[in-house]
Design a protein that fits this description.
With about 500 residues, the protein is α+β, with helices and mostly antiparallel strands. It has three domains: about 1-110, 2-Layer Sandwich (Alpha-Beta Plaits); about 150-245, Chitinase A, domain 3, CATH 3.10.50; about 265-505, no CATH class. The protein contains 15 helices and eleven strands. The chain has helices at about 20-40, 50-60, 60-85, 135-150, 250-255, 265-295, 320-340, 345-355, 355-385, 390-405, 410-415, 420-445, 465-475, 495-500, 500-505; strands at about 1-10, 10-20, 90-95, 105-110, 115, 150-155, 165-175, 175-190, 210-220, 230-245, 300. Strands 6, 7, 8, 9 and 10 form a five-stranded antiparallel beta sheet that branches. It is extended and about 105 Å long. The termini are far apart.
Amino acid sequence: MKLTVTPAPGSALRIVIELPPERFGAAINEAVRALSRRTRVPGFRPGKAPRVVLERQLGPSAVTDEALEHLVERAYRDAIVELRLLPLTRPEVDVTSAEEGQPVVFTATVPVRPEVKLGDYRNFNFRPEIETIDDARIDKVVEELRDQQAILEPVEDRGAENGDYAVIGFTGTRDGQPFDGGSAERMPLIIGEDRLIPGFEANLLGLRVGDRRDFDITFPDDYGEASLAGKPAHFQVELRELRRKVLPPLDDDLARQFGDYEDLVALRAEIGTRLRRNAVDKARHGFADRIIDYAVANADFELPAHLDLEPGQRDTRGLPEILVEQETEVMHDEFRSTLARQGMTEEAYLKVTKQSEADLHAEFRPRAEERVKVLLVTSRVAEAEGVQISDEEVEAEVARGRRQYGENPRLVRYFESDRGRNFIRSTLRRSRTVEKLIDDWLVAHPEHPPMPHAEAAEQRSVVGPETAASAGEVEVTDPASLASEVAGEPATETADGLGLATEARASS
């Protein structure tokens, strides 16, 4: 068997396999015996019908087709073993010569995982950036908490003003005729936020409950409904309810509504502590992202080094298509989850944006390619750093996933499968690798403020909710998958993100 290997686009190899004529002859003899055993031929016992009879009954190419199928399959398998390759998927096969008495020649194009040639990933010249938490930041959170405890009281002593909470009924017409979406019995809104047609809410100013007002307005040129864009309309509006927000006093009683705080000073101190902790967590995650970007930018992707290729032929000519396609599917499923949280179906989104699934995939693809690069590079860095994940750690993560995602049996089954366990292992390994690089940098720079891991991180699954759900839906497998949260998601800095709003609701 003669093998000729050359690069192909998308981290693939084009293997030309040439077999001597006698192997085709042997394969034909095997095919005759196999077909004869499987085919009932009148006048012949099973396994005894000659080739000419089989071809008369099954077709002139039946024997050679059968022989070629098995010959090509065996030869390809032998070639993969000889070349020490681990294909990512089945090859594309093109038989170029298959005549009896002549060498059989076929080409197998097979995608392989590219080898990552690491550049520098440690000697970066950037540092973590920790935001300073000042009184203004604390004041902002206090005002959010205060706003959450506000009440809405009826307005009876004046007309409507910007910032008021109103309920209106309205009827819209064009040329005296109502139009779709132009009427509502009870529409809640905050006056001045311009959630309706630009200029609409300005016509509500000064109205008292029960007042009506007629006015004309022109829809903007870029209005979503094409039949109304740039067109004038007439509206009749009635103000049915009017309330104003009344904030509670900024005092010690307010602080006590959010937990066991003696006074406002204690609440502010706790807010400052949580904000500073979040700032450190955010800085650590941002630092991790920059380290990963630095490592990827300095890495090269090559075809397997043990192959007999010229140096100029080692370029992968792109990433394996199967990896990019699967990561695109993961991103697509994450996008569906995001839409669902917003109360929208994918079908509705596509209709509004006038897109197709193919359009979405085209948008996702560049980011999917970057995510695959991150996967491959961080996996290679993990090897270089000697980071290993034990079976016990994987099982602990599977158990944590059972607790966290118990309401999703399909996801739990995926985590419990060999494929899911491999995904968890690789995710843990990548995460730990990046954390190791951060910790090593901090040791080398003792002058920098400490940046400990988030206190709650060990209580959560290392695979974030969206990534877990998408991985389980697509049933990804490493290395064709990639967790979008290499180091997790930093906490938000709203009152809800700090956990104080929840405490207030629980204690009220």
